[in-house]
Amino acid sequence: MSDDIKVDKVFDLKGLPCPMPVVKVSKGIKEVEIGQVIEALSTDPGALSDFPAWARTSGNEILKTEQEDDVIKFYIKRNV
Amino acid sequence: MDQQTRDDLLKLFQGKLNEAMRFYLETCTRCGVCTEACHVHASMGQVKYIAAYRAEIVRRLYKKYFKGRGKVWPSVGEAKELSEMALDELYDAAYSCTGCRRCMVYCPFGIDTQMLMSIAKLLLVGAESEPEILTLLADTSIEKGKSIELFKENFMEGIKRLEAKVVSKWKMEAGETAIPMDVEGADLLYVALAGAHSIIPAAAIFNAAGENWTLSFFEAVNFGAFVGDPTKSKLILDRIVNEAIRLKVKEVCICECGTAFRVMKQLAGKQPFKVSSITEVHARYIREGRIKLDKNKMDGGVTYHDPCQIARNAGVMDEPRYILKHLTDDYRELTDDPRYNWCCGGGGGLVAMGEDTLDFRMKSSRVKVDQVNATGADILATACENCHAQLDNLNDHYKMGVEVKFLSSMIADALVQDAQP
Amino acid sequence: METLYYIILVPMVYVAFATFFIGTAVRLIKIFREPSHPATLQIYPEKKPRWLWALHDTFLFPTVRRHKPLLWVFLMAFHICILLLIMGHLELFGEIETLQLIPHEIFLGQGFVGLIASIALLYFLFRRFISPVRELSVPEDYYLLILLFLIVLFGSQMDWARRWYFYEELSVDHYREYLSSMLYFKPYLPAEVSDTGHSFMLVLHVFFANLFLMFFPFSQLMHSFLSLPMNKLRRG
């Protein structure tokens, strides 16, 4: 986990079929309060463009993206 | 529902009335031959899941507003007012229909229930009563098309990270790129999905066949088609068409995704490239001797689920069987006639709606489970992400004890390296 | 009574035929002038030549044969009977000689065509009272079947009376006289047609047929014209 970001909930989306990562994140983010942050773990390279596009569409904010080996970590702040 | 809303919705309805749609709306004799056609009805038994009944839900509105009869004598056809309740019925009909078009094989006239349900879906979009998640997914796809430059770098970096895995399936010469991207003048543009599983095996096979290919920035699936919004479907489709034209490719190859393939193949119109499903491309590689497969990689009987949008609705039936003959000696058919294959029960956006539809998807697909079980096969292969996800869910839920596999990954695992030309 | 008979046998017949021809034409023109669907709607695997298979699907109902064999038997019988009955009626116009290329009597079914059609109609009607076709059916479907049944019943009665009970007061020549006068817009009702023991049957037959023709263009009966183009869409 990134040191400077406080994560309120973690979603493991590794290996899910299309389009489950985006579906789960957009549902999951409703489980935290506005202003809180979720961490989403994905193995989909497509998520690297899907998540930012989703964030722009839905009005949420991706604070940080980290790629480590297979796993991609997204830190997403709920704005709406 | 106020008059303004109703008028707006009826305008949307009017827009859907082309020649074929009029045929379908005018003709049904309610003979009931389609009764056994729908997997939902076959599994759950309710009359509302018979194709003719679903169609009648849309047709009743047509009879009310688009036939003179609706003003003179509405009750003769049970014509119905467009109301909130009618919208609920439309939702029920449209989002329990997977658009598999199996009923079309039964109908003496060939009425296309999926077409009729597209009216229902469009009205729901107009009334903002469609499943939100599908619209969100469609909007995300469109947004990606608009601002691809912002995400490109990151995406390419993510793809780079997959290359080692591709090479582990198929060794490359030094200096070759395992997953080429943005290659102008490539012969083939491969349009995948977001997941690594839709990129790695495909890449290994392209490399094994010595294909001059390039990976698309976009995902193949068209959520606009699921939600029944023609404008969005077109925008999502255009992203890929534009990329293909920009890169001057000769062929666009769609990954294992039924909707993506059918929409691209049948709705893209005349383009300077041809559209193929990855299954067709793989069969071609085998036929031309460009890849060689090892038959001993597969244990047990193999059966193949024809994705409706690829087989019955787009004609790719012989190719997967040809491929499977090179993968196993124990291939078992699900049906004598692939037109009659049961839908997996996940089409039309139902799988994309995730857990919300899980219970319904399991209940409505019992006949599919019976069909697979009857073959006694150990491996259930398919060539559609959507079908795969649904079949996986069924496998867990009904403890079917099969292994659900993508045809492409079976090919990738069976590649014989020394056959490299 | 005479006036009522006259209204049914003369003006109403004209109105019915006008409604049928104009209504059907206008509706078909409207439908066929709509833009065609942008993508193929076919079902695979495809078989060629497509138009031949579309004809096969339209006239032999292969999907019904496969899935509802009993219904198929009745459907085939009924539709063939309808064709024969249309031919028989055309022969009542003495002017159409081509139908007599191979000489035969009018209504070459000897009364059995009407009988088979009535039985088939009863079968269609009663199966609509059984689930799930009952839930699928709308009033229109029942009305049409009942109308058709009444038309065929009264029409056949006249034929049966002539052939089987040797009723001779109302003969083919009288029908011909009446129909010919209608065709040339010089309506004339021979006394045998409007004023004999079986006239009421003729009047009822014509009355129900008039209703049927007037409803035709606005009902699911349009499947008679649309079945072929639809089957062509499915064949690609």
Overview of the structural elements:
The complex is a heterotrimer of chains A (80), B (421) and C (236). By secondary structure, chain A is of the alpha+beta class. Chain A has one domain (9-77): Translation Initiation Factor IF3. Chain A is 26% helix and 31% strand. Chain A has a four-stranded mixed β-sheet with strand order 1-2-4-3, with helices on one face. In chain A, β3 (61-68) and β4 (71-77) form a beta hairpin. The longest helix of chain A is centred in the middle third of the chain and has 12 residues, at 47-58. Chain A is globular and about 30 Å long. With 421 residues, chain B is α/β, with parallel strands linked by helices. Chain B has three domains: 3-129, Fumarate Reductase Iron-sulfur Protein, Chain B, domain 2; 133-288, Rossmann fold; 295-418, Rossmann fold (3-Layer(aba) Sandwich), CATH 3.40.50. Helices cover 49% and strands 7% of the residues of chain B. Chain B is built from 21 helices and eight strands. In chain B, the strands form two sheets. Chain B has a four-stranded parallel β-sheet. A four-stranded parallel β-sheet of chain B has the order 6-5-7-8, sandwiched between helices. In chain B, β3 (251-254), α15 and β4 (274-277) form a beta-alpha-beta unit. In chain B, α12 (200-208) crosses α21 (407-413). Chain C is mostly helical. Chain C has one domain (2-235): Fumarate Reductase Cytochrome B subunit. Chain C contains twelve helices and no strands. In chain C, α2 runs parallel beside α11 (199-215) and α6 (112-127) packs antiparallel against α8. The longest helix of chain C has 26 residues, at 139-164. Chain C is globular and about 60 Å long. The chains are: A alpha+beta (80), B alpha/beta (421), C mainly alpha (236). Chains B and C meet through α2, α4 and α7 of B and α2, α4, α7, α8 and α12 of C.
